[in-house]
Design goal:
mainly beta, single chain, seven-stranded mixed β-sheet, four-stranded antiparallel β-sheet
Length: about 130
């Protein structure tokens, strides 16, 4: 069992930045590939960014490429999402997710149904 707790959300003006953190507890963090998803009202939950267990492979959705950066610190059991140049369309609840992977795994995962554990979400609101 892994517990995930997101933090860092809030209200920001368009063009501003936020840094989300997701702290994991309960198991060896480096055994998990991680992802950030978001869900806006009335829309499906969508992938934002994903990172392999070592951090060597990274994926970004086209909508955030060049503006968001995912990273992880396995010593701190934490994954981050640095969000720059935020726009109103980025307004959503942001969730982190964890997928248990074998030690030899080098990939990332982009589908919701691939993930085993989810955080409770943190609200990000971008005003125009």
């Amino acid at each position: 069992q892994v517990q995930l707790v997101e933090s860092g959300g809030g209200l920001v003006q368009a063009g501003g930045s936020l840094r989300l953190s997701c702290a994991a507890s309960g198991r060896t963090f480096s055994n998990y590939a991680m992802g950030w998803f978001r869900q806006a009202p009335g829309k499906e939950r969508e992938i934002v960014a994903a990172i392999s267990r070592s951090g060597g492979s990274i994926y970004y959705a086209d909508s955030v490429k060049g503006r968001f950066t995912i990273s992880r610190d396995n010593a701190k059991n934490t994954v981050y999402l640095q969000m720059n140049s935020l726009q109103p369309v980025d307004t959503s609840v942001y969730y982190c997710a964890a997928k248990r992977v074998p030690y030899y795994s080098v990939g990332y995962y982009t589908r919701r149904d691939e993930y085993d554990y989810w955080g409770q979400g943190t609200q990000v609101t971008v005003s125009s």
